[in-house]
Amino acid sequence: MSGTKTASAVPARLRRALPRGGRGWLLLVAALVLAVAGAGLGTRAADTWPWPKDRYCWGAWEEGGGPGFLGGDDDWSRAVEETAPTRERPTGRCQIDLAHGGRGGYDGDQVSYDQRVAVEYRPVPKAAEDRLAMVQGGFLGGDSVPLPDGLPGTVSERGGLLVLPKSCDAADGRPTVVTLRASGTYASGVSYVRNDPPSLGGARQAAVLLVAAANQGMAAAGCAPDEPLEVSSPVYGLPGEPERVHSTSEEVCGIRGLHPETEEVEYQIGAVTRDLHTCGVRGTEDGAPYLELAMVAHPRLAAVFDGITGTRPAGRGWRGTGTFGEEHAIVRAECAGRPATFLMGVSVNPGHLAAFANATAARLGCAAIAPAAPHASEGAAR
Question: What domain of life (predicted)?
Fold first, then answer.
């Protein structure tokens, strides 16, 4: 029945409300587009719109995907600088700077936070003092514990170090490491400043961040293993809280005969395993480092000290080889069937390293490393 009109799909009431003519339809479509866009912007502000999230450190970390420094619902400003390693230049750096400020405190003073999370991909330095300052000074303190799952490195709540596989070594054989550091300050008014690094989410989360960055760095540098590194086990817990000592007659680090040369310090014992033993001593008033001690026997972690332990004993009566520098000391000797490296930082009193090395050697079941009473002049071997 060709003369019959089909019923309109648009109800009469709505048909009367729709605009007539092409111009009206264009206005309606434009209004609908603006409405949808406005809704999208609103949900973006609420982090529900599926906009792509930023990624940091060569793609290892995602915005809002972990600790607070990665962003999310906050009003901190962030500035990111990145240089990825390559096959031709196997060094890289990732740096996230965070800032926040305003009026605060009891007196309404201007307060500011300046914080940084930095990752570095690089071979260990060539010079002995530079290498010891980097590795021991930053990653073998009293709060440092082994990375889980047998990974060669250390971690703490403020950062960590991972020694990469030999496939990533420099051309001259120096191991390549990836380091993670958190640092920062809080300032109030014109005179008050204190350390205030950003949280990495605890030691285990720091380990996860470190390993993720290492995997991306190795991939970029063309030396990644067949299977990516991963963190699947818990992190070794610190054996106790920091302990204070008030006089030079007291012992620190749980080591018999290890006495501080100054009063009012506190010590933190870190790892106590066959692969790693750490302890740090600091002033109780200013928190300044006073003494850092470590024993490293994990083969791949100990490799970062290859070539800087000297060719002769550290002094008369010392086993193995070693040197006492201006700010660090290092001794390497056979212990329980494998090389063990004993390190001391800040203080260079041979008696401190001797007490620590001999106590650790006894715990591991090997002969003493140092003479019973080393003289300061005997620790000057270069």
Answer: Bacteria
Torsion sign, CA atoms 258, 260, 265, 270? negative
What's the rounded Cα separation, in Å, for the pair 253 and 346?
15
φ/ψ (deg, to 5) at 72: 140, -135
Q: How many CB atoms lie within 10 A of CB 267?
A: 24
Task: Report the CATH fold assignment for 237-375+377-381.
Answer: Protein Transport Mog1p; Chain A (3.40.1000)
Q: How far apart are CA 221 and CA 15, in angstroms?
A: 65
Tokens at residue 204, please?
């285990």
Confidence of residue 372 (pLDDT cuts 50, 70, 90): confident
Judge whether 223 and 164 are in contact, CB under 8 Å: yes
* R_g of the chain computed on alpha carbons: 29
* Paired tokens of 230: 């991963």
| Per-residue model confidence as pLDDT tens digits over 80-90 | 999 999 999 99
